[in-house]
Amino acid sequence: MISKKTKSLAEVNVGDQLEALSIPITVTLINGGAIATRDYFPGHHDKEAAQALGSPHIFMNILTTNGLVQRFVETWAGPGARFRDQKIKLGAPNYPGDTMTFTGEVVERDQATSSVVVSFKGKNSMGNHVAGTVTVVLP
């Protein structure tokens, strides 16, 4: 659940850990995320087409992954946080039947810009699906 209260910069310190978030990876999540982002590549919708590409099943698209990263950070920061930058690196694919668990930590705090940098990882059973940093501006 997203916090109803936005964190203030005064409440945040380097080293603060974000509460882990586990997301079950389902066909519906993968299909819905791809459709919502107008990504009609068959590997995100059609199991046979994905298998013809050498994949065991359909797989999550990058825009869905980006949205889940934003959900993870906003759940911690609150609805008034303003996203300034998001850098990700993809790794192992997300397939239906797996679970991706996000973890994160505040690695920078900048009083002058009222921003913090969160380093995060989203891991599934094969390893890191996504890793990177998000910079958010806090009141």
Order of helices and strands: EHHHEEEE
Could you state the CATH homologous superfamily? Hotdog Thioesterase
Which structural class best describes the helix and strand composition?
alpha+beta
Q: Could you report the average pLDDT, rounded to the nearest whole number?
A: 96
Strand residues, percent: 35-45%
User: Which range best describes the helical content: under 10%, 10-25%, 25-40%, 40-55%, 55-70% or over 70%?
Assistant: 10-25%
CATH class: Alpha Beta
Q: How many domains would you count in the coordinates? A: 1
Largest sheet: 5 strands, antiparallel
Written description of the protein model:
By secondary structure, this protein is an alpha+beta fold. It has one domain (9-137): Roll (Thiol Ester Dehydrase, Chain A). Helix content is 23%, strand content 36%. The chain contains three helices and five strands. It has helices at residues 27-36, 47-52, 62-77, and strands at 17-24, 82-90, 99-110, 115-124, 127-137. The protein has a five-stranded antiparallel β-sheet, covered by helices on one side. The longest helix has 16 residues, at 62-77. The radius of gyration is 16 Å and the shape is elongated. It starts with 16 loop residues before the first strand and ends with a strand. The model has no long low-confidence stretch (mean pLDDT 96).
